[in-house]
Amino acid sequence: MAAKEPEIITDKNQMRQWSRSMRAKGKTIGFVPTMGYLHEGHLSLINEAHKHTQLIVVSVYVNPGQFSPNEDLSTYPSDFYGDIKKLMAVPGGVDVVFHPHNLYDYGNNNCGDDGNGLQKEGMREKDGVVVSCVEDKGLGHETWVRVERLEKGMCGKSRPVFFRGVATVVAKLFNIVEPDVAVFGKKDYQQWRIIRRMVRDLDFAVKVIGSEIVRDSDGLAMSSRNVHLSLEEREQALSINRSLSKAKCAAEKGQVNCRELRNSVIHAIHEAGGKIDYAEIVEQENLESVEEIKSPVVFCIAAWFGKVRLIDNMEISL
C-alpha cells in the first residue's frame, strides 16, 4: 500500500475552509499541533488522534509568541521535508499538514524574514520588561490569552512569556483548524493542563486529550532539543528519569514527604552534572505545590545540561 501523502496548506483561510468542507460531509477532525522536527513522541500523538477521529491535521509552526528575545527561537531545529516523510510513514497517515508562514502577520509586517516573519538578530528586552519575539519586532499583535494561576509556577517562573504565547497560538490554531479533538503530549505537563483549562474556561468546542510520555530505550524523554545534547550530556540527562522513578518507588513504599523526595532528585541530578531549574511536586489538576502526598500528584522537573534545558515529569497516584 502506497504511503499517504498529506495535503500541505499554508493559508489560514484555506485551512478553515478545508475543515468546514470536511465537517459538512460528516467527518470528524483530529488535530496535533507541533513545532516540527518530529520524533516518535510526536508520532505517538498522531496515533492517539487516529483512535478518536476520521481525519488528522498536523500543524508545523515554530511560534515566536512563546519565545522571549533571549531564548532559542533562532536555533530551534527544523526539517520540514523530513517531517513530511515521517508523517507519511505513520499508520493511517495524515490528511493535512498546516504549515503557515507567520500567524502574526496582519498585512503590516515590514520586518526582516527568517521563515517566521521575524529577524533573528538584534533581539532584546524592551525597557527591562520581558517581551515575546512578536512584540520585540512590533508586529502589532497585542491580544494574549492568559491562564493566570496555572501559568505562574514551574516553567512560568523562568519563561515569563511562554505560556501566554502557547495559549494564544493554540487558541488561534483552534479557531483556524476547528478540530473536534486535539492531542497534546503530557511531557509538557503544565502546558497540557493550561490548554485544558483554557478550553474549559472559554468554551472551545474541542476535546483535549493528554498522551503519555514517549521515551528512548535509555529512558530519556523524547524532545526536539535532545539533538543539541553532547554524548556526555545525554548520559548525564538520564539522571532525570532515573531519579524520578526512584522517587515514585519511594512514595509507593510510604515516603510521602515531598521535601525529602525533592531533595533526593535534586541531589541525583546535581551529582550527574545537571543544573536544576525547578523540581516541584504538585497536584495533577491544579498544579498547586504539596508538602505531603495525599492525592494524585505529578513530580515535574526542568534541568539544564550544558546549554540544553530539558523537562520531564512523573505522575504518582498512591
TrEMBL record:
Its main location: cytoplasm. Keywords: ATP-binding, Cytoplasm, Ligase, Nucleotide-binding, Pantothenate biosynthesis. Pathway: Cofactor biosynthesis; (R)-pantothenate biosynthesis; (R)-pantothenate from (R)-pantoate and beta-alanine: step 1/1. Its EC number is 6.3.2.1. It catalyses: (R)-pantoate + beta-alanine + ATP = (R)-pantothenate + AMP + diphosphate + H(+). GO terms for cellular component: cytoplasm. InterPro entries: Pantoate_ligase (IPR003721), Pantoate_ligase_C (IPR042176), Rossmann-like_a/b/a_fold (IPR014729). It is found in: Cytoplasm. GO terms for molecular function: ATP binding; pantoate-beta-alanine ligase activity. Belongs to the pantothenate synthetase family. NCBIfam families: panC. Homodimer. This is Pantoate--beta-alanine ligase. It comes from Ilex paraguariensis. The lineage of its organism: Eukaryota, Viridiplantae, Streptophyta, Embryophyta, Tracheophyta.
